[in-house]
Sequence to fold (350 residues):
Amino acid sequence: MNGSTGASNPTAAASGKASLLDPGFDLTLRPMRYPRFYEMYRAAIKNTWTVEEIDFQIDLGHLRQRMSPAERHLIERLVAFFATGDSIVSNNLVISLYRHINAPEARMYLSRQLFEEALHIQFYLTLLDTYVPDPERRAQAFAAIENIPSIRRKAEFCQRWTDAVFSLERTESQADKRRFLLNLTCFACCIEGLFFFGAFAYVYFLRSRGLLPGLAAGTNWVFRDESAHMTFAFAVLETVRREDPQLFDADWAIQVRTMIEDAVECETAFAEDVLSGGVVGLTRSQMRQYLEYVADQRLSMLGLPVHYNARNPFPFMELQDVQELTNFFERRVSAYQVAVQGEICLDAAF
Fold:
């Protein structure tokens, strides 16, 4: 069986090469086929943080004394979305990504990503418990996908693409692989890459006004993690495109563009809700433009033409520019990096 628990792709078998979306579970780390994924795993281990490092005391004073009712509504909606968003990503990671990305070094990274998603969930749980002391309002926030329409709409969008692969046991056919690739594209471009980036913009807007430094500090680390998750997902897409380019045809491009347009509309509806009280200095049209800008970046990263031709309207997002995903957090203070000891020879034979 050559270290695999399932049959190989006939095309790959004919060429003598295994491919990333072969059905089954390859268990062989030597020789390592995709050392890039292993290096991503090592980099993620170095950048370890904990929720306990974040101080929310100044934030509490700001919420009570410096923020308007409209700004507090923004925060409550934001943390309500965050509290469910990372759980949705975690579920899809297990249901789809871990099952169908068939390389042990890639699954090592996915295991680390699952830990990071759990850490994000803990962060947002702490935010809700800290920021929303009223039990009834807190319960409403935790049940956001049931009782907050703008968040329910985003959750339904996510669930639609998770459901598309839920019954997919093995990627035996080209049609199976297309289903998986659309799921991966959705979570990389639309959920982690658009819904979360829209949410980050609200946090950094508040930071630009000197508000909620605890939230901003934690969000910096979440931003770094989510950027790395996107980098991994796009590396998977690049690998599959190289190994099986016929999967990325005109039909795929049309489906992806429609998916991203739908995501922009969902996130625009959320912006209408978040900014419904009238937040000074931040308009709905600016948020719409920013979402279109991010969507264009995602299309470019997929090698597709931009759709909106939008520019970034937020000077305060320059440091978090979506074109700087892989290097932004290299500027993070080194005190928060955990050393990884030992060197691995990536091209060693058995």
